Amino acid sequence: MVLTAQLFLQEDGALQEPGPSGRQAPRRPIHAGATVRDDRARPIDAEVVDLSTTGCLIVVDGVVAVPSDISIGIAGIGRVSARIVRRNGQRYGCAFDQPLSEGAVLAARAVQTVVPFATGADPLPTGASDANADPEFRRLPMRTRLVVIVGASLALWGVVVTGVVAAVAVLS
Q1: Cβ proximity of 84 and 66 under 8 Å
Q2: pLDDT value of position 121
Q3: Residues whose CB falls within 8 Å of the CB of residue 67, separated by 6 or more in sequence, listed in order
Q4: By C-alpha distance, which of 58, 126, 127 is closest to 91?
Q5: Tens digits of residue pLDDT in 115-125
Q6: For residue 103, what are the contacts with CB-CB under 8 A and spacing of at least 6?
Q7: Spatial contact of 52 and 81, defined as CB atoms under 8 Å apart
Q8: How far apart are CA 150 and CA 152, in angstroms?
Q9: DSSP per residue over 6-34, as a string?
Q10: With CB atoms counted within 10 Å of each terminal CB, which end of the chain scores lower, N or C?
């Protein structure tokens, strides 16, 4: 038995037309961060790979039951109720409970990045390599810090006293 197939290369921003896959609306490629919440409302980090007015394809690190009702927080759109309808490895096909507007799909595509919440164990990336990292700051000796604090305080009090004396002279 011989099977033949034709593959067509698609541009990144091109619109994917609905077809025999059962999708009801054209989908658009997107790479946006998202948060999926299952029926227990536990947050799961995800990435939206493509998006249409009726559904999306997400990639999740972990396992989510199929079928299941979820909510997806998508940057540029907000929280959307959906149902997971299929799974292929870590890729999940979702159908929205209520269709999105075309404007919402365009807004999600316009968002550039979503910055994850950083913890002390997982700091935000700065783009700097270890070789170019900022040097560590050392505290000045206690004596130097006291001189700076006392000097700055005396200078500020001098400004206040000079201002009061000038104001009294003008009013007299």
Answers
A1: yes
A2: 57
A3: 83, 84, 85
A4: 58
A5: 555 555 555 55
A6: none
A7: no
A8: 6
A9: ------TTPPBPP-TT--SS-BEEEEEEE
A10: N
Location of structure tokens 């000045």 = 140
Structure tokens at 36: 């999926």
8 Å CB contact between 41 and 57 = no
Q: Which whole-number Å values give the CA distances from 146 to 32, 63, 140, 141, 152, in the listed order?
A: 50, 58, 10, 9, 10
Write out the two tokens for 33. Answer: 């961060």
Task: Report pLDDT digits (tens) over 96-116.
Answer: 888 888 877 777 777 655 455
